[in-house]
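Supplementary Methods S3. Input chains for the assembly prediction are listed below.
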Amino acid sequence: MIKKIKPAILILMHILFLQGLCGQVSMNMTDYLSKKFLNYTATVPREEIYIHSDREEYISGEDLWFNIYLIDRKSLKPSSESKIVYFELLNSENRPIVQKKIWLDGGFGPGQVVLPDTLSTGTYTIRAYTSWMKNFLPVNCFTKNVHIYNAFSSGAIKEKTYSGKIFGGGERADNYPAAVNSGLTLKADNLKPDVLEINVVTDEKYRTENNNQFYLFIQTHGNINHVSSQWITGEYTKIFIPKKQLTAGINQITVFNSKGQPVGERFIYTPDRENPLVNIHSADSAGLREKISLDLGFGNVLTTTLNSINLSISVAPVTNNHFTSDINDYMVFGTEFGSLQRSALKGLKINNISPEVIDSLLQTMKSNWIDWNTILAADLPVFRYQVEKDDHYLSGKLLTGDKKAADADKFVFLSRPGKIAVFQYAKTDEEGNFSFRIHIDEKVKELIIQPDAATKNQSLNIESPFSHQYIKSEISVDSTNKQIPGYISAWSVNHQVRKIYGTSSIGDPLASLISIPRSKRFYGKPDQELNMKDYITLPVMQEVFFELLVGVFLKNKKSDYEIAIADPDNNKLYDTPPGLFIDGVVIKDPSIIAGIDPENVEKIDVVRERYSVGDYLFYGIVNIITKSGDFSNATLPDYAIRLPYRVIDPVSSFVSPDYSSVALKRSRIPDFRTTLYWNPSVKPDKEGKARIEFWTSDFVSDFEVNIQGITPDGKIFSLKKIIKVTR
Amino acid sequence: MFHINIRRLSICSFNVLILLLFIFFSGSDLYGIKQGLSGQLPVKVNQQDTLIENQNLFNGRIWRNLYYLSEGNQFLFSNEFLPGSLTINGKRFTDIFLKYDIYNDEILTPVDQGGILQLNKEMVDSFSLSFQDKTYKFIKMQDDSIKGSKKYFSVLYHGKTALYLKYTKKIDKLTINGENEKFYQFRRIYFVKDNVIYLINSKSDLIMALIEKKEMIKPFIKKNRLYVSEKEPESFIPVIRYYDSLSH
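Predicted structure tokens for the full assembly:
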């Protein structure tokens, strides 16, 4: 019977398989593309930085005030992931002039640098990135050119232009390999008001090879707007997508063939249809040393998020520079498509550019984040730099005597001299690289780094956390005749007067919000804690060990010394020497301990049992804690590095005079602030209102109030207003 | 005839089946799809991060059992490792196997190499153990008797006030020369109010600790017919929760 029905079962199975095959593919492909895309954007998030600086033109020696916004590209919300931003000011040859490590609190980080007064007149670049963004350098970093003028050097300003991965300069976007001769052409008509028209033209070959099918995928900065399977009915296929389905920003339209390979890509721009978020009320003009009140109101923002809005505000003289950047315009492109040449926008805001011009601009683009070749690859790329969320990464390389990279799995130790022993190790990778995690705070830490098994001429190279990967730039020849603006001489006088009178806007350092965890002994409670003050002073350490320490022996061995610990289990000496420390710093040579004057020793901690830290095993531990506790009683071996290290730089507050009293208003000390006011963290109250008050100076000019900000739910806003200051 | 046809068909379809099976299983590649669509993309594993995490978690003395000759054992609930979690220096580690030695008030965890570590108590903030479908949470806090020494307490309730249980084992020497030893377990109940620790040996001790609301608590127990006894420390929780609701 079974034999009889077997063929019928087989036929049924065939039918089921065929059904499964035909039914699954189209449905699975859209699911597959979505799943791959979502996994990719979750695993390879994109961070963007925007920096609002008080001005974009400075005099050498002035202060540059700025606020950093770290934004998650997908949600456009402030990012709480990375906690450190590497800020640099580069000269025209891309050499760093100033480098700062700025701490971010919930995606915001104020900062300030003093521009060296030796800087010559020229175009300088502000650049900023996080550790994670270093994986995607040189493109994935914020860059902004500023002009710096030196009162004592004449000459014209030379513009700095970039080459390489840019757009707006006429470079064509790369095609996907399968797109070449695929027989499919994709066009997008974005000029209709409510609907996006997508035209797909296919030839006979494509239709035959792809079973009259293609897949359409539309995404905007990491958010899926549309995924569908499309059947081809003829040479021309039209698809209409309602524009309300599209997220505001640059929409990436990708078409895949029936095998799931990308064969066509176009970019369109969907403007933000929401009304302006913030409004500002103030007097349009003011006299000298007069109070100005700015009243800010917030419109379509949830009341629950009102007092979480973060905005920065600068009040600085109006300049000839029409290319000042806004956070909302900047975030349309971010760095996803390379470095935007500002000239491509001709100084206009994106919403004021005609759709035809934007369309032609987008023709040359390619996302360097959403690249389907990478998304669909079997394995994701391995990223060297991690997100610095809880700790800072200090990396280096262990080199052999002939300056070659050390082998993999070599231990490297990090110690911090102190009365509390802190121990951390790293292991080298195949290229000799290692990295340690260091708590993020402003404290200057003494770090001692050394290899475990030191051999002759071994050396350590500590890597700078600042990247050396720069976008190739050159000085534009055409702009050599660009003259220095007239107002610069007045600014220069302002700066000289302030220098003479010693007035400055730099106030007290901002209070640090970072808590420093209490250090704990890495070996816990020792078996013996020998307090030297409890005993009579012995002349040498050998006697201290012999008389006062239980189960620990310091012996002469020919001309050297050795320290051994007895296993408390059987009272036999361990075959391996114990871990030796002075003030928490690993010591390999026992004679260093033997040579210490017991007068300088405060305490000796002993752990007699075997102690494990990760997969590093100590056969007992002896830690000599000196009275100074700073490892000053011993000499470091040549192969070790002692490094004073500060993870983040402190930031000062901006201060400006208050002329509310008549005496101060009549003060004879001149007030020639060029930047009238700077506040990197204005927060509205629960009702969505904020009042900002400041005083004008003795400088007559038109001032621009420049407000940049972001709400916790990712609404980005920019606002400007001119206030005339007259006599 | 029919029979033969079917046979021919079955032979033919067997070949087709093989072909279809080939297409089915290799189809994903043909369509550019790899197997394991539902799986996650490869997780980025940073070797250095793992090293650091391991240094935080696996930090302690190599454990030796000093009581293998004794009757019973020094552990809470079981002589076997129990699933649990740990918080070390503010960092939480889950899916860890732990044993709680309540004789020495230390926790142990197995390590890859087959050994057992007695975790550095200075670093441990809290831990939990799962035993018989129940999770027990322990925190490290100051003991009421010995200054400077912190011990692990089981958290029964934590609100404005708190109720803790301290599990302990002691050794009962069965012979005069101490050769045969036997572990015995006991527990103490602690109630913490306004940073004052009260040892609770009975229901009346608890009522005394809550003396200022006594007039309301007694009717509450009566009205709700609550069983409140030191034999079941959990039975104190509704009373303490009610007390907390009274104090603003």
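Chain B touches chain A through 50 residues (CB under 8 Å). Residues 1-12, 19-45 of chain B have pLDDT under 50 and may be disordered.
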